[in-house]
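Example record used in the benchmark description.
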Amino acid sequence: MAGPGVPQQSHLDLGVHDLEAAHRQVLAAGGTLLDATHGDGPHGFRVYADPAGHPFCLVRERPGDDRAHGKSTA
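Model output (structure tokens):
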């Protein structure tokens, strides 16, 4: 079982189209903003912790941007 005394097993990057709306939802659900210094730009992201302290990121995706899903554009 995960918890503050258990080492991190994974890290989630969650793609969202509206970073501000997702930010509000995370905070309303009990999440904590850890780092917002990378939020600017078309692929900005913010780092959060869930209520148990596990980190995750919200990553801004642009509609139709295949790079956000790991697809090659070359």
